[in-house]
Structures
1.
Amino acid sequence: MNAVMIVREEEIQRTPLRGVQETLLAWPARVSLLILGDKDAPDEIDLSPGFERVMWIKGGQASEDMPNLAASLHQYVAGFDLILLLEERSLRPLAARIAAHLHCTPVTDVTAITAPLQCLRSICSGQAEQRVKASGKQVWTLRRQAFEQAVCPVPQVTYAVEKCCWKIILPQPIAGTSQPITLTRPPLTQAKIVVGGGRGVGARQWNILEAIADKLDAGLGVTRALVDAGYFTEQAQVGQTGKQIAPQIYLACGISGAIQHVAGITNSKVIVAINHDPEAPIIKRYADYYLLSDVADVLPRLLAQL
């Protein structure tokens, strides 16, 4: 099996990449790496051993020109049997476009690679798993939390970097302006603690909830209802149509536990819920610990103790 992993530049030293690499190398697989860089390609790069080729294309902002980026990547990955991308909102459309170029159907939400061209994927909002046995060329997106297993540190080796060029096949998109956002909290998919807020948290308590997240050095996530209402951007949404997270602790404040939201938190190690309704699904089915109380009373007292 000849496989290639497409990752962003900031992912190359993180645990999920190593986890996927070790899984693939357990079989007679040849594994290459294609990096979406924010800057021009270096001549050499230090990585864990085992990669056959290391390629680099300047395309860190994948959403800015997705059609041409997908066409550019296609010319470099067409010779591989398996193309893997770590799950991310902006990379899932890229995976779909690459699959279209290869005339195959993408497989999303992969949680385990069980054998060459065989995997498990999450379905039914995380309540079940589907076993997939594929043939021909394949494009898979992987849930990064599922591959964050402990890996043994190994000495890095130096690879020569193959520089990849863009292939412009479509007209350039209309130019726009963008302003980078400075993150003051850890990203939701990497945070060890996540504080979540739902419809039960009133507008007056949002400043308190944000202060609690800052005190705990935690990520701040919300339910879809609050995103739809315009209180938060979709970057903060946790759930089936948002981000899937796997923190050590998830503190759910004023969250009922709708299946759409629960699909994004099932990989949390410990779920702690604050809710006044003892019949809420988050209390009855999902929470490891819970406090039956009004969040308006609990949050100020919690903040005072931190």
2.
Amino acid sequence: MVIENRGKLQHEAEELSILGDKFYARNDFSAAVSCYQKAAELGDKLAQYNLALMYEEGKGVEVNHAKAVYWYKKAADSGLPEAQINLALCYYWGTGYTT
């Protein structure tokens, strides 16, 4: 039962992430953010990465480097190389976190 529920949540997260990509492609950034946010909270690493990009670039949301770093870290911890690189760059440039 737990494994079945986990599979359903993972599938839902992937679908939301794909929907976010479709909204992004149509330049509907606020709708994309909404989809990415939900998928990211369900653990989808691509949605976490895309949400971080949205916060970093201010697409559909106000620029928020702290939130960008938070979501880059989530995606990086899941093993996404692009997120690991962007997180390293945030650390290098000193954006989005405090020591």
